[in-house]
Amino acid sequence: MGKFQGGIIMSKSSISLIVCALLMCICTFVAAANRFQTKEEFIKRKVPKGHDFSKIAENAKYRAGHLLVRFTTRPDGKKRNIHDKKKILDILGGAKIKYNFNDEPGLTLVKLPPGQSIEEALKIYNAREDVLYAEPDYELNLFSSIPNDTLFDCLWGMHNTGQTGGTDDADINAPEAWDIISDANDIIVAVIDSGVDYTHPDLAFNMWINSIEEPNDANNDGYPGIQGVDDDGDGLIDEDSDDREPGDPNWTNDLFEDDDENGYANDIYGYDFS
After folding, report:
1. Would you tell me which of 1, 5, 186, 261 could form a disulfide with 224, CB atoms 3.0–4.6 Å apart?
2. Which residues contact 213 (CB under 8 A, 6 or more apart)?
3. Distances (CA, A) of 145 to 28, 148, 172, 180, 270
4. Are residues 192 and 274 located together in one domain of the fold?
């Protein structure tokens, strides 16, 4: 006999069926979340019929020398790390990773090597099975050069309309400058300060990324960079923070998470010289 609870009579067999159905739904959801591992499946489900990624959109403006490349997952279903991507890019001519988009799995901004055109790269990249698609870094036009930041009016030094009682136009003419150029991604600005919140929405997308470095030990070999290799070309191999190499007395291997072997472990968003 079933028990009466909450206005519904359920037997043990009914409960078991419900639990099984829920588990099947969960498994289906997880499987769906890991879909689009292959290029064929992605194109079939996500790309409008007739769209050709190997061609530049007609009359479109785009950033010279750069591509947005979305890589497939690895055969085991896991997303490709920086080293996986770098290997593929080396095969395709040696493009450099400029930015990894964490919100869109596999999407990466790359800078093409000198001499490789956008047109040539699009054909080569989109012919690869480990690349879902590659397209130019198309230019998007904003409707206004005035930021939508609700506190922008407080920055009278950027744009002064006398809003705080000061002198109209006593500012650096920031909006006027943004009308001329608002993209300076090729310029890296070093800030010497006590720190910065690199997750802040005003900074996160514009932070410089050390594309060689990943959290922890990227290749899990237990050594700085690649074991037995002088990754940074300083004449030392797998050195610790005191430049001692394996086999030297008191070698500590305290930099085993330093993927680029430059002496700073996990320096993904700049360098910590403190």
Report:
1. 261
2. 82, 258, 259, 260, 266, 267, 268
3. 45, 9, 14, 10, 29
4. yes
Query: For each of the chain's 274 residues, which pLDDT tens digit applies?
Result: 444 344 444 444 444 555 555 555 544 444 444 444 578 887 887 788 888 999 998 888 898 999 999 999 888 888 899 999 999 999 999 999 999 888 788 899 999 999 999 999 999 999 999 999 999 998 775 556 788 788 888 899 998 888 888 888 899 988 888 877 877 777 877 777 777 777 777 777 777 777 666 667 767 777 777 777 887 777 888 787 788 888 888 888 776 766 666 666 656 565 544 4
Residue 257 is given by DSSP the state T
Cα–Cα distances in Å, from 199 out to 45, 79, 202, 207, 209?
33, 22, 8, 9, 12
10: exposed, middle or buried (Cβ count in 10 Å: 0-12, 13-18, 19+): middle
- The structure tokens listed for 106 are 């596999």
Does residue 55 sit in helix, strand or coil?
Answer: coil
164 lies in the same domain as 239:
no
Domain count, the chain: 3
Q: Check whether residue 96 and residue 155 sit in a common domain.
A: no
The boundaries of the domain holding residue 130 are 62-138
Could you tell me which residues are beta bridge partners of residue 10? 3
